[in-house]
Amino acid sequence: MKKKRIIIIAVVCVAVVAVAGTVFGVRAYNDYTLQQQTEERIKRIDDTYADFLDETDRSKKLEKLSDFIKNKPSTNDKIAVEVLNAVEPKYSETLEKMQKYFTDDYDKIIKENTISSDSLNKMNDKKKIQDCIDKLNSLKQIIDSEKEIVFNQNSQNNADSYLKKTEGLISSYSDRIQEIEKAEEQKAEEDKKAAEGKKKQEESENSSYNDTSSVNDISNEDNSYSESNDYNAGTSNNSSDNSYSDGNSTSNNNGGNGTMVGGRYVEGSWHSYTDEDGTSYFDDKGNAWDDKGNTWNYYEIWDEIGIEHWTYAVE
User: Fold this and answer.
1) What's the predicted TM-score (pTM) here?
2) Which one, of 118, 244, 103, 109, lies nearest residue 176 by Cα?
3) How far does Cα 302 stand from its chain's mean position?
4) In Å, how far from its chain's centre is CA 239?
5) Cα(98)–Cα(64) distance, rounded to whole angstroms?
6) Which pLDDT score is estimated for 205?
7) What tens digit of pLDDT does each residue of 175-213 get?
8) What is the gyration radius of the CA atoms in the chain, in angstroms?
9) Which of 253, 259, 257, 258 is closest to 272 using CA atoms?
10) CA dihedral (119, 120, 126, 127) positive or negative
11) Residues 270, 279 contacting (CB under 8 angstroms)
């Protein structure tokens, strides 16, 4: 009886050991399988990211990012929850780095086309400002077309942040261009008025000059005389002894009002004399000048040499 008990106890112990070994063996196998699946999934993620970095075409990079999002590991792929939990951190980290490539590009474009308020207020280069507007408008279109992929689950909030920033810059640039154009219009109007005023002034001056020239021409024509005219000196009464005839010509003007004659303002009568040296002018006070700027006084000269004063006979 005692021997039978020993045998039963031995059989039970063997059975317990067998069961325990089986349990531990199954668990070890499952752990190994889960580890293999986890490593395989992580390797796929690393390979996808390496391909993404090697790609140089932006549109193809976007396609790879889109595929990466679509192929996110899930229980629908008959993946154990343990594997998903182990892979999730690696997947999220890689997704963020791939999306950052595009957001960094957005930030670069915005930075390159941002003009500070102080610089903008002093800038008058409409072409440069408009170029910034065009590039920011293009960026808006790009963000709008890529936001579902680049920003993924949080697309609306992040996309709105970028769009709001670009729209704010575009609005301020457009306002500055309008200010520049308004200033240009005002300046053009001022220049136009100034040109018209200058033109009227020149026309007025030319008209005044032409009127004076016409009066002088008429006066000179009326008072000129040739070889047969007399040049009278002193108080003689057109005597034949004081006749002056040598081919030169003179003219006189008895106008009572002042006028410009030979570059000099004259009041009262004035006379002119033309010979091979040019034209000389003199008034009834003995003052004389020529068209070369020389001046003298006949009375003073005559006084020095002792000649009696004479007057010019005006007919």
Assistant:
1) 0.54
2) 118
3) 74
4) 84
5) 9
6) 75
7) 999 999 999 999 999 999 899 888 888 887 777 656 555
8) 56
9) 253
10) positive
11) no
CA distance 110 to 169: 9
The pLDDT > 90 percentage for the chain reads 35
Rounded Cα–Cα distance for residues 81 and 63 (Å)? 28
**CB count in 10 Å sphere of residue 233:** 14
| Alpha-carbon distances, residue 85 vs 18, 38, 47 (angstroms) | 33, 9, 20
Strands (E), the chain: 249-253, 259-261, 264-266, 270-275, 278-283, 287-290, 295-297
Structure tokens at 209: 């000059």
Cα 154 to the center of its chain, rounded Å:
39
Could you report the per-residue pLDDT of 231-270, keeping only the tens digit for each? 443 333 333 343 333 445 555 555 455 677 667 777 777 7
The rounded distance, in Å, linking the Cα atoms of 63 and 206 is 78
Q: How far is CA 254 from CA 36, 156, 257, 266, 315, in A?
A: 129, 98, 9, 11, 10
CA distance 28 to 141: 54
Distances (CA, A) of 143 to 106, 149, 159, 165: 8, 10, 7, 12
Residue 66, φ and ψ in degrees, nearest 5: -60, -45
Dihedral angle, C-alpha 13, 17, 23, 24, nearest 10 °? 150
The β-bridge partners of 288 are 282, 296
Provide the 10 A C-beta neighbour count for residue 162: 21
Of 179, 161, 160, 183, nearest to 171 by C-alpha is 179
How far is 108 from 142, CA to CA, in rounded Å? Answer: 14
Question: Which of these, 259, 276, 277, lies nearest to 268 by C-alpha position?
Answer: 259
Token couple for 297: 């006084």
| Residue, of 292 and 161, whose pLDDT is higher | 161
Contact 255, 274 (CB under 8 A): no
* pLDDT tens, residue by residue, 12-66: 665 555 555 554 455 565 567 778 878 888 899 999 999 999 999 999 999 999 9
